[in-house]
Amino acid sequence: MIEIQDLTKVYGETAVVDSVSLTVPAGQICVVVGTSGSGKTTLMRMINRLVEPTSGQVLIDGQDTRAEPPHMLRRRIGYAIQGHGLFPHRTVAENIGTVPKLLGWDKARTDARIDELLTLFQLDPAEYRDRLPSELSGGQQQRVGVARALAAGPNILLMDEPFGALDPVIRAKAQDDLLAIQRRFETTVVLVTHDMEEAIHLGNKIAVMDAGKLLQYATPEEIIANPATEFVAELIGGDRSFRLLSLSKVVAFVEPGEAQGEPIDSGANLREAYAECLWSGREALPVTRDGEHIGRITLTELARHAARPQ
Ligand SMILES: Nc1ncnc2c1ncn2[C@@H]1O[C@H](COP(=O)(O)OP(=O)(O)OP(=O)(O)O)[C@@H](O)[C@H]1O
Protein backbone atom coordinates (compact mmCIF):
# COMPACT_ATOMS: atom_id res chain seq x y z
CA MET A 1 0.00 0.00 0.00
CA ILE A 2 1.18 3.51 -0.84
CA GLU A 3 -0.04 6.39 1.32
CA ILE A 4 0.69 9.85 0.00
CA GLN A 5 0.05 12.44 2.70
CA ASP A 6 -0.18 16.15 2.04
CA LEU A 7 2.69 15.97 -0.44
CA THR A 8 4.04 19.23 -1.85
CA LYS A 9 6.90 20.12 -4.16
CA VAL A 10 7.82 23.75 -4.62
CA TYR A 11 10.17 24.98 -7.36
CA GLY A 12 10.92 28.69 -6.98
CA GLU A 13 7.60 30.25 -6.08
CA THR A 14 5.42 27.55 -7.58
CA ALA A 15 3.93 24.50 -5.91
CA VAL A 16 4.09 22.10 -8.87
CA VAL A 17 2.56 19.45 -6.60
CA ASP A 18 0.28 21.08 -4.07
CA SER A 19 -0.83 19.23 -0.91
CA VAL A 20 -1.74 15.97 -2.62
CA SER A 21 -3.05 13.11 -0.50
CA LEU A 22 -4.12 9.73 -1.82
CA THR A 23 -3.83 6.05 -0.95
CA VAL A 24 -3.17 3.24 -3.38
CA PRO A 25 -4.22 -0.09 -1.84
CA ALA A 26 -1.89 -3.06 -2.36
CA GLY A 27 -2.36 -4.83 -5.67
CA GLN A 28 -4.26 -2.00 -7.32
CA ILE A 29 -3.49 0.26 -10.26
CA CYS A 30 -3.65 4.02 -9.74
CA VAL A 31 -3.46 6.02 -12.96
CA VAL A 32 -2.46 9.67 -12.71
CA VAL A 33 -3.84 11.79 -15.55
CA GLY A 34 -3.71 15.47 -16.34
CA THR A 35 -2.47 17.96 -18.86
CA SER A 36 1.19 18.60 -19.57
CA GLY A 37 2.92 20.30 -16.65
CA SER A 38 0.19 19.42 -14.14
CA GLY A 39 2.70 17.72 -11.82
CA LYS A 40 2.07 14.03 -12.59
CA THR A 41 5.69 13.02 -13.04
CA THR A 42 6.84 15.05 -10.06
CA LEU A 43 4.18 13.40 -7.88
CA MET A 44 5.27 9.95 -9.03
CA ARG A 45 8.98 10.62 -8.59
CA MET A 46 8.42 11.66 -5.02
CA ILE A 47 7.26 8.10 -4.31
CA ASN A 48 10.73 6.65 -5.07
CA ARG A 49 12.52 9.85 -4.01
CA LEU A 50 13.93 10.67 -7.41
CA VAL A 51 12.45 14.01 -6.35
CA GLU A 52 12.57 14.94 -2.67
CA PRO A 53 9.30 16.42 -1.36
CA THR A 54 9.28 19.96 -0.02
CA SER A 55 6.77 18.82 2.60
CA GLY A 56 4.43 15.96 3.35
CA GLN A 57 5.27 12.27 3.38
CA VAL A 58 4.93 8.97 1.59
CA LEU A 59 4.40 5.72 3.47
CA ILE A 60 4.94 2.35 1.87
CA ASP A 61 3.28 -0.47 3.75
CA GLY A 62 3.11 1.87 6.71
CA GLN A 63 6.80 2.83 6.64
CA ASP A 64 8.00 6.37 5.92
CA THR A 65 10.12 6.34 2.73
CA ARG A 66 12.63 8.63 4.46
CA ALA A 67 13.51 5.75 6.80
CA GLU A 68 15.98 4.30 4.29
CA PRO A 69 18.49 5.74 1.80
CA PRO A 70 16.91 6.57 -1.59
CA HIS A 71 19.05 4.08 -3.52
CA MET A 72 17.88 1.24 -1.28
CA LEU A 73 14.28 2.35 -1.65
CA ARG A 74 14.61 2.38 -5.44
CA ARG A 75 15.85 -1.20 -5.55
CA ARG A 76 12.52 -2.40 -4.26
CA ILE A 77 10.37 -0.12 -6.42
CA GLY A 78 10.24 -0.89 -10.14
CA TYR A 79 10.44 2.10 -12.46
CA ALA A 80 9.61 2.08 -16.17
CA ILE A 81 9.62 5.17 -18.37
CA GLN A 82 8.52 6.20 -21.83
CA GLY A 83 10.92 5.11 -24.54
CA HIS A 84 12.00 2.25 -22.24
CA GLY A 85 15.29 3.82 -20.99
CA LEU A 86 17.28 0.66 -21.71
CA PHE A 87 21.08 0.73 -21.57
CA PRO A 88 21.97 0.74 -25.29
CA HIS A 89 25.27 -1.15 -25.00
CA ARG A 90 23.97 -3.90 -22.73
CA THR A 91 22.16 -6.97 -23.94
CA VAL A 92 18.54 -7.67 -23.12
CA ALA A 93 19.62 -10.13 -20.41
CA GLU A 94 22.08 -7.64 -18.89
CA ASN A 95 19.43 -4.94 -18.91
CA ILE A 96 16.87 -7.11 -17.17
CA GLY A 97 19.48 -8.37 -14.72
CA THR A 98 20.51 -4.87 -13.58
CA VAL A 99 18.74 -4.74 -10.23
CA PRO A 100 19.18 -8.44 -9.33
CA LYS A 101 22.93 -7.88 -9.86
CA LEU A 102 22.88 -4.85 -7.55
CA LEU A 103 21.07 -6.96 -4.99
CA GLY A 104 23.76 -9.63 -5.22
CA TRP A 105 21.63 -12.43 -6.66
CA ASP A 106 23.70 -15.36 -7.92
CA LYS A 107 23.92 -16.05 -11.64
CA ALA A 108 21.61 -19.05 -11.69
CA ARG A 109 18.82 -17.20 -9.90
CA THR A 110 19.23 -14.11 -12.10
CA ASP A 111 19.29 -16.17 -15.31
CA ALA A 112 16.16 -18.05 -14.27
CA ARG A 113 14.35 -14.80 -13.54
CA ILE A 114 15.42 -13.27 -16.88
CA ASP A 115 14.11 -16.29 -18.75
CA GLU A 116 10.87 -16.30 -16.76
CA LEU A 117 10.22 -12.63 -17.55
CA LEU A 118 11.17 -12.90 -21.22
CA THR A 119 8.81 -15.84 -21.59
CA LEU A 120 6.04 -13.95 -19.80
CA PHE A 121 6.49 -11.07 -22.22
CA GLN A 122 6.41 -13.47 -25.15
CA LEU A 123 10.04 -13.07 -26.10
CA ASP A 124 11.80 -16.39 -26.62
CA PRO A 125 14.84 -16.27 -24.28
CA ALA A 126 17.03 -18.24 -26.69
CA GLU A 127 16.40 -15.66 -29.38
CA TYR A 128 16.34 -12.41 -27.39
CA ARG A 129 18.65 -12.75 -24.37
CA ASP A 130 21.79 -11.66 -26.19
CA ARG A 131 20.35 -8.99 -28.44
CA LEU A 132 21.06 -5.31 -27.99
CA PRO A 133 18.11 -2.91 -27.57
CA SER A 134 18.76 -1.53 -31.07
CA GLU A 135 18.01 -5.01 -32.44
CA LEU A 136 14.46 -4.96 -31.05
CA SER A 137 11.24 -3.34 -32.28
CA GLY A 138 9.73 -0.47 -30.29
CA GLY A 139 7.15 -2.75 -28.70
CA GLN A 140 9.81 -5.32 -27.76
CA GLN A 141 12.02 -2.61 -26.23
CA GLN A 142 9.09 -1.42 -24.19
CA ARG A 143 8.40 -4.96 -22.93
CA VAL A 144 12.04 -5.41 -21.96
CA GLY A 145 11.83 -2.06 -20.13
CA VAL A 146 8.90 -3.30 -18.08
CA ALA A 147 10.58 -6.70 -17.56
CA ARG A 148 13.64 -4.89 -16.22
CA ALA A 149 11.48 -2.89 -13.83
CA LEU A 150 9.94 -6.14 -12.55
CA ALA A 151 13.17 -8.14 -12.39
CA ALA A 152 13.71 -8.18 -8.65
CA GLY A 153 10.03 -8.82 -7.96
CA PRO A 154 9.18 -5.37 -6.57
CA ASN A 155 5.73 -5.11 -5.08
CA ILE A 156 5.47 -1.56 -6.40
CA LEU A 157 5.87 -0.51 -10.01
CA LEU A 158 5.98 3.13 -11.12
CA MET A 159 5.38 3.75 -14.81
CA ASP A 160 5.77 7.12 -16.52
CA GLU A 161 3.95 7.18 -19.86
CA PRO A 162 5.20 3.65 -20.51
CA PHE A 163 3.15 3.22 -23.67
CA GLY A 164 3.46 6.77 -24.97
CA ALA A 165 5.79 5.90 -27.82
CA LEU A 166 3.82 2.91 -29.10
CA ASP A 167 1.39 2.93 -31.99
CA PRO A 168 -2.27 2.36 -31.02
CA VAL A 169 -2.48 -1.34 -31.90
CA ILE A 170 0.67 -2.35 -30.04
CA ARG A 171 -0.32 -0.03 -27.25
CA ALA A 172 -3.58 -1.87 -26.61
CA LYS A 173 -1.67 -5.16 -26.52
CA ALA A 174 0.95 -3.71 -24.16
CA GLN A 175 -1.80 -2.49 -21.82
CA ASP A 176 -3.39 -5.93 -21.74
CA ASP A 177 -0.01 -7.54 -21.05
CA LEU A 178 0.51 -5.15 -18.17
CA LEU A 179 -2.88 -6.03 -16.68
CA ALA A 180 -2.17 -9.76 -16.95
CA ILE A 181 1.25 -9.41 -15.35
CA GLN A 182 0.02 -7.05 -12.65
CA ARG A 183 -2.68 -9.55 -11.68
CA ARG A 184 -0.24 -12.41 -11.67
CA PHE A 185 2.31 -10.71 -9.40
CA GLU A 186 -0.29 -8.61 -7.55
CA THR A 187 1.94 -5.59 -8.05
CA THR A 188 0.79 -2.17 -6.86
CA VAL A 189 1.11 0.14 -9.86
CA VAL A 190 1.18 3.91 -10.20
CA LEU A 191 1.06 4.87 -13.87
CA VAL A 192 1.26 8.37 -15.33
CA THR A 193 -0.44 9.14 -18.62
CA HIS A 194 -2.09 12.06 -20.39
CA ASP A 195 -4.46 9.63 -22.12
CA MET A 196 -7.86 9.36 -20.40
CA GLU A 197 -8.74 6.31 -22.52
CA GLU A 198 -5.70 4.52 -21.08
CA ALA A 199 -6.57 5.66 -17.55
CA ILE A 200 -10.11 4.27 -17.85
CA HIS A 201 -8.87 0.98 -19.26
CA LEU A 202 -6.12 0.37 -16.70
CA GLY A 203 -7.02 2.18 -13.50
CA ASN A 204 -8.77 0.76 -10.47
CA LYS A 205 -8.69 4.41 -9.52
CA ILE A 206 -7.82 7.53 -11.47
CA ALA A 207 -6.13 10.59 -9.96
CA VAL A 208 -6.84 13.72 -12.01
CA MET A 209 -4.24 16.48 -11.61
CA ASP A 210 -4.35 20.10 -12.72
CA ALA A 211 -1.80 22.78 -11.87
CA GLY A 212 -0.33 20.68 -9.05
CA LYS A 213 -3.66 19.96 -7.39
CA LEU A 214 -5.48 16.66 -7.16
CA LEU A 215 -8.95 17.43 -8.51
CA GLN A 216 -10.49 13.99 -8.15
CA TYR A 217 -9.42 10.52 -7.07
CA ALA A 218 -12.05 7.95 -7.85
CA THR A 219 -12.92 4.85 -9.85
CA PRO A 220 -13.32 5.24 -13.63
CA GLU A 221 -17.09 4.77 -13.22
CA GLU A 222 -17.34 7.54 -10.64
CA ILE A 223 -15.18 9.90 -12.66
CA ILE A 224 -17.22 9.38 -15.81
CA ALA A 225 -20.58 9.58 -14.06
CA ASN A 226 -19.75 12.42 -11.68
CA PRO A 227 -16.73 14.44 -12.79
CA ALA A 228 -15.74 16.69 -9.87
CA THR A 229 -15.11 19.77 -11.97
CA GLU A 230 -15.63 21.16 -15.47
CA PHE A 231 -11.99 20.43 -16.14
CA VAL A 232 -12.38 16.73 -15.30
CA ALA A 233 -15.49 16.54 -17.50
CA GLU A 234 -13.51 18.09 -20.34
CA LEU A 235 -10.68 15.62 -19.94
CA ILE A 236 -13.14 12.72 -20.18
CA GLY A 237 -14.59 14.16 -23.37
CA GLY A 238 -18.11 14.47 -24.66
CA ASP A 239 -19.40 10.96 -24.92
CA ARG A 240 -19.79 9.96 -21.29
CA SER A 241 -22.76 7.68 -21.91
CA PHE A 242 -20.78 5.52 -24.30
CA ARG A 243 -17.82 5.39 -21.95
CA LEU A 244 -20.09 4.25 -19.13
CA LEU A 245 -21.49 1.50 -21.34
CA SER A 246 -18.06 0.22 -22.29
CA LEU A 247 -17.16 -0.30 -18.63
CA SER A 248 -19.88 -2.86 -17.90
CA LYS A 249 -20.34 -6.38 -19.17
CA VAL A 250 -23.50 -7.83 -20.68
CA VAL A 251 -23.50 -10.63 -18.09
CA ALA A 252 -24.50 -8.19 -15.32
CA PHE A 253 -27.66 -7.12 -17.18
CA VAL A 254 -29.02 -10.36 -18.56
CA GLU A 255 -32.69 -11.06 -17.93
CA PRO A 256 -34.58 -14.28 -18.50
CA GLY A 257 -36.27 -14.65 -21.87
CA GLU A 258 -35.75 -15.11 -25.58
CA ALA A 259 -34.78 -12.75 -28.39
CA GLN A 260 -34.40 -13.06 -32.12
CA GLY A 261 -31.26 -13.14 -34.23
CA GLU A 262 -27.52 -13.42 -33.70
CA PRO A 263 -26.66 -13.82 -29.99
CA ILE A 264 -24.08 -11.75 -28.13
CA ASP A 265 -21.58 -13.25 -25.70
CA SER A 266 -22.11 -12.47 -22.01
CA GLY A 267 -18.50 -11.23 -21.80
CA ALA A 268 -19.10 -8.46 -24.35
CA ASN A 269 -19.48 -4.94 -22.99
CA LEU A 270 -22.70 -2.93 -23.00
CA ARG A 271 -21.41 -0.59 -25.66
CA GLU A 272 -20.98 -3.51 -28.06
CA ALA A 273 -24.47 -4.75 -27.20
CA TYR A 274 -25.94 -1.30 -27.74
CA ALA A 275 -24.19 -0.95 -31.08
CA GLU A 276 -25.47 -4.37 -32.12
CA CYS A 277 -29.07 -3.48 -31.21
CA LEU A 278 -28.92 -0.24 -33.15
CA TRP A 279 -27.10 -1.76 -36.09
CA SER A 280 -29.48 -4.70 -36.50
CA GLY A 281 -32.62 -2.76 -35.47
CA ARG A 282 -33.46 -5.15 -32.60
CA GLU A 283 -35.11 -4.38 -29.24
CA ALA A 284 -33.26 -7.25 -27.55
CA LEU A 285 -30.38 -9.65 -28.15
CA PRO A 286 -30.11 -13.30 -27.07
CA VAL A 287 -27.15 -13.75 -24.69
CA THR A 288 -24.91 -16.81 -24.64
CA ARG A 289 -22.14 -17.98 -22.35
CA ASP A 290 -19.76 -20.63 -23.71
CA GLY A 291 -22.25 -21.04 -26.55
CA GLU A 292 -25.22 -21.76 -24.19
CA HIS A 293 -28.28 -19.50 -24.19
CA ILE A 294 -28.58 -17.77 -20.79
CA GLY A 295 -31.20 -15.07 -21.46
CA ARG A 296 -31.45 -11.75 -23.23
CA ILE A 297 -30.44 -8.11 -22.93
CA THR A 298 -32.88 -5.38 -23.93
CA LEU A 299 -32.37 -2.01 -25.56
CA THR A 300 -34.46 -0.45 -22.77
CA GLU A 301 -32.06 -1.75 -20.13
CA LEU A 302 -29.04 -0.59 -22.14
CA ALA A 303 -30.50 2.90 -22.60
CA ARG A 304 -31.32 3.09 -18.91
CA HIS A 305 -27.76 2.22 -17.96
CA ALA A 306 -26.30 4.75 -20.42
CA ALA A 307 -28.48 7.51 -19.04
CA ARG A 308 -27.95 6.85 -15.35
CA PRO A 309 -25.10 8.53 -13.52
CA GLN A 310 -23.94 6.14 -10.79
N1 LIG B 1 13.59 20.30 -11.57
C1 LIG B 1 12.67 21.23 -11.84
N2 LIG B 1 12.90 22.53 -11.62
C2 LIG B 1 11.96 23.47 -11.85
N3 LIG B 1 10.72 23.19 -12.32
C3 LIG B 1 10.43 21.91 -12.57
C4 LIG B 1 11.36 20.85 -12.34
N4 LIG B 1 10.79 19.68 -12.66
C5 LIG B 1 9.53 19.98 -13.08
N5 LIG B 1 9.31 21.30 -13.03
C6 LIG B 1 8.06 21.99 -13.40
O1 LIG B 1 7.02 21.43 -12.63
C7 LIG B 1 5.83 21.36 -13.39
C8 LIG B 1 5.28 19.95 -13.35
O2 LIG B 1 6.14 19.09 -14.06
P1 LIG B 1 5.84 17.55 -14.26
O3 LIG B 1 6.93 16.97 -15.07
O4 LIG B 1 5.56 16.94 -12.94
O5 LIG B 1 4.49 17.61 -15.08
P2 LIG B 1 3.73 16.48 -15.86
O6 LIG B 1 2.31 16.61 -15.49
O7 LIG B 1 4.37 15.16 -15.63
O8 LIG B 1 3.93 16.95 -17.35
P3 LIG B 1 4.14 16.10 -18.73
O9 LIG B 1 2.85 15.42 -18.99
O10 LIG B 1 4.43 17.19 -19.72
O11 LIG B 1 5.29 15.18 -18.48
C9 LIG B 1 6.17 21.85 -14.78
O12 LIG B 1 5.74 23.18 -14.90
C10 LIG B 1 7.67 21.77 -14.83
O13 LIG B 1 8.21 22.75 -15.67
TrEMBL record:
The keyword Transport applies. Residues 2-236 form the ABC transporter domain. One of its GO terms (molecular function) is ATP binding. Pfam families: ABC_tran. Keywords: ATP-binding, Nucleotide-binding, Transport. Belongs to the ABC transporter superfamily. PANTHER family: OSMOPROTECTANT IMPORT ATP-BINDING PROTEIN OSMV. This is ATP-binding protein.
